[in-house]
Specification:
- With 165 residues, this protein is mostly helical.
- It folds into 2 domains: 51 residues, no CATH class; 75 residues, MazG-like (Helix Hairpins, Orthogonal Bundle), CATH 1.10.287.1080.
- Helices cover 70% and strands 0% of the residues.
- The protein is built from 6 helices and no strands.
- Helix 1 crosses helix 2 and helix 4 packs antiparallel against helix 5.
- The radius of gyration is 22 Å and the shape is elongated.
- It starts with 10 loop residues before the first helix and ends in an 11-residue tail after the last helix.
- Bound molecules: magnesium ion (MG).
- Magnesium ion (MG) binds next to helix 4 and helix 5.
């Protein structure tokens, strides 16, 4: 994320920036203010990259909660239910993509596009509920994923296989 204009900065950014610079000068002395400023920008950009989802999913989770009626909710069977639902809806999405190849030569009509988006919504609903059953939320799930992929990218490990790479 670059900050070409002032609009790219939030007040929280500027506040964080000030605190980071003051902290660095207090710790290191006032010798390399420009270097501290560059480091502060990098720190804020990294934090924002990691926090891009903060606050954006709560309303959606509340909507999911209001329609979350299934057996075993909040107990072990609820987790099983959401896992099965997630697999089922993922399958429905894949099936629509398969039929796109089989019946429409891969051409995405508005109708097919809408149907696939609807299935992705179903997938997302189950992801939200599975996260809830695990005692966490979508923000945390997204954050973990961003952190994992960023780390792999930095280490040149995006390709290959294995969960722990
Ligand atoms: Mg569906």
């Amino acid at each position: 994320m670059s900050r070409e204009t002032l609009e790219d900065w939030t007040l929280a950014d500027i506040d964080s920036f000030k605190r980071l610079i003051v902290h660095e000068i207090e710790v290191q002395g006032p010798k390399d203010v420009l270097g501290y400023a560059r480091q502060a920008v990098r720190t804020i950009e990294e934090a924002k990259r990691g926090d891009f989802v903060r606050g954006s999913m709560k309303a959606y989770e509340r909507a999911c909660e209001s329609t979350a009626i299934y057996p075993g909710k909040g107990e072990a069977p609820g987790l099983i239910y959401t896992a099965l639902g997630l697999a089922g809806e993922s399958g429905e999405f894949a099936d629509k993509v398969k039929k796109l190849l089989r019946d429409a030569d891969g051409k995405v009509s508005e109708e097919r596009r809408s149907a696939m988006i609807a299935e992705l919504g179903d997938v997302l609903w189950y992801v939200a509920r599975a996260a809830s059953e695990l005692g966490t939320d979508l923000e945390t799930v997204a954050q973990w994923n961003v952190n994992k992929l960023s780390s792999r990218k930095e280490r040149g490990k995006l390709g290959g296989s294995g969960d722990e790479r």
